């Protein structure tokens, strides 16, 4: 008996097949991206073992399913297994309406999942832990690279429970915890900004060595700036770069500009 609901009893995909789908996505989710269909090729390659089992001895249905999964797909690669799980749960209980339903699910979820995934599992943790790891590396500590690798692996492993949740829970997850995720995203974004802001003076270093003299009184420029606000120049520089990025200035231009400015000011004896 065939059913088209995610809440019905499933036919039971072999555990080995499910692992194959997940690991295929792990290793190919980004390597085959292209401007025409983005991650579609990787998505189709990932679900192919499942499709071969589901449509065994049905070559026409298999061909149709493969073409369906080659349609445009683009989302956060670490959270995409949630959608993979949903699609497998739907397609193993397939009927004549499955193709349209699978396409609708993929199209409808890849946007919200991308937003949540990019915020919660990429931008925020990479910004926080990346800044901490970089700061450790600057100080010569090998813990920085170890921390970076550990966090990256831990985030990647989130795909495993998400795949299982997608397979067992269907589309309910997004709607039931949407408000909670929004609050969590905003909270962690604020935390990330605070951490990065606090790290600016220790990561971006400027030392004004120009001396200001008035009679017998002499004072170094950096001491004057520190009395106004410690870390003033790094904060201003980061603010200027951020403003420039918002004005769509290319990052490579900003990098070259900062390098040239630093060299010129150091040559003139203003900065050290």
Overall form: elongated
Number of helices: 12
Mean pLDDT, all residues: 76
Which residue ranges are poorly predicted, with pLDDT under 50 across at least 5 consecutive positions?
A: 1-12
Task: Give the beta-strand count.
Answer: 2
Major beta sheet summary = 2 strands, antiparallel
Radius of gyration: 26 Å
| Biggest sheet, spatial arrangement of strands | 1-2
Helicity range of the residues?
55-70%
- What's the SSE pattern? HHHHHHHHHEEHHH
Structural class computed from helices and strand pairing: mainly alpha
Task: Provide the domain count.
Answer: 2
Q: How much β-strand is present in the residues?
A: under 5%
Measured distance between first and last alpha carbons: 77 Å
Protein name: PTS system transporter subunit IID
GO cellular component, one term: plasma membrane
Pfam families: EIID-AGA
Keyword list:
single chain; 272 residues; mainly alpha; 12 helices; 70% helix; 3% strand; elongated
Briefly summarize what is shown:
This protein is mainly alpha-helical and 272 residues long. It has 2 domains: 187 residues, no CATH class; 63 residues, no CATH class. The protein has a two-stranded antiparallel sheet.
């Amino acid at each position: 008996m065939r059913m088209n609901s995610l809440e019905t009893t499933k036919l039971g995909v072999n555990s080995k097949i499910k692992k194959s789908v997940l690991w295929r996505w792990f290793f190919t989710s980004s390597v085959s991206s292209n401007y025409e269909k983005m991650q579609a090729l990787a998505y189709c390659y990932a679900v192919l073992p499942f499709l071969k089992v589901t449509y065994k001895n049905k070559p026409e249905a298999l061909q149709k399913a493969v073409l369906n999964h080659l349609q445009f797909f683009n989302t956060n690669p670490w959270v995409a297994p949630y959608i993979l799980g949903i699609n497998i749960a739907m397609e193993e209980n397939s009927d004549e309406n499955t193709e349209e339903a699978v396409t609708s699910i993929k199209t409808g979820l890849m946007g919200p999942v991308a937003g949540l995934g990019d915020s919660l599992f990429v931008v925020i943790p990479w910004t926080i832990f990346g800044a901490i790891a970089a700061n450790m590396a600057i100080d010569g500590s090998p813990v920085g690279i170890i921390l970076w690798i550990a966090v990256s692996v831990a985030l990647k492993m989130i795909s495993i429970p998400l795949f299982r949740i997608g397979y067992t829970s269907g589309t309910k997850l997004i709607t039931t915890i949407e408000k909670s995720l929004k609050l969590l995203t905003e909270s962690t974004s604020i935390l990330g900004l605070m951490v990065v802001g606090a790290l600016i003076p220790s990561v971006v270093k400027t030392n004004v060595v120009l001396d200001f003299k008035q009679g017998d009184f002499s004072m170094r420029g950096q001491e004057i700036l520190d009395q106004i606000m410690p870390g003033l120049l790094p904060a201003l520089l980061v603010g200027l770069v951020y403003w420039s990025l918002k004005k769509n200035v290319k990052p490579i231009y900003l990098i070259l500009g900062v390098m040239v400015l630093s060299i010129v000011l150091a040559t003139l004896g203003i900065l050290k």
